[in-house]
Amino acid sequence: MVKNEFGISGGSHERIKASLPIGDEPPKVPSTTPMATRVLDRKADELSEAIHSKFMELLSDKVAEKDGHLTAQDLQEMSDDFRRNMDDIKTVFMEAVESFTRAQARSRDDSERKNVFARLMVQKFAHQLVDDRELKRHPERLSRRMLPGFMNALYTMVGTQKQVDFEKQTKAIIHTARTDGNGEVDWEDVYRTPGARMIMLGAEIEMAQHFSAADKRIEWLMAMINSNLIPGQAGLPGADWEMTREAAVRLLGDVFSDLRAALRDSRTREKIRSKLGYDMIVLLDDVATRFT
After folding, report:
1. d(Cα 160, Cα 231) in Å, to the nearest integer?
2. What is the distance between the alpha carbons of residues 79 and 139, in angstroms, rounded to a whole number?
3. 20 three-class SS
4. What is the dihedral sign for C-alpha 87, 93, 96, 99?
5. Residue 38 near residue 198 (C-beta atoms within 8 A)
6. Which of 91, 115, 204, 205 is 20 to 30 Å from 97 by CA-CA measure?
7. Does residue 20 surpass a pLDDT of 90?
């Protein structure tokens, strides 16, 4: 049975052990599936045929250009020799594709091993994020360019030690998910696990304590995000996007969703109160109510 610092159970099926290694083992790259192999094989055949056809076209043009210095027999022999080499070309192509696939898998796994706690928190409002070109049609959404600023704000509010703790706990969940998924991680599934919900609740409680003066903290959040926006390309749609007060409130409404749910549950509410005190419950209620 997994419990967080408030004694709230995450369910025995979470199967997270304290001794679970965090990032010690290299990620397991799943073997190529039979379907993927057939697709690559077909693409390689298509490439080989295209190379052969192009070679013949160029060579025929050369023969015409040289007034037939090459005979038809010469041409056929060269064609046969070239076709016999297609297996080698196909092998090189397949190795290149497989190497690229492995590199992509390693890059994805490396990315998933970094800042996994922040990624977990971003998942709470991921449905609001769109590419800049979509902002004109959906001005109520958020630009993906805001993520560095949000992460800076998140780390500032939870504090260094809590950030380290949450990161370690999230990596343990990711490790379990990767093991169960034969090397693949489904973040939607991770997000729904009791362990992940406990981490997010803990982070939301830490963040909520900074909102005793909510208006000032919203202004601070806007400034943090807008000063760390990834630059957009001038002239393109959405390049002038900035975080507004209305957008910040919608963002915080999603961020504090687990806190609202926890405070509505009498048992969870009492555990938080016994851990943090009545005054904290009052503050948390105010934050949960303000950002709905």
Report:
1. 27
2. 59
3. coil
4. negative
5. no
6. 115
7. no
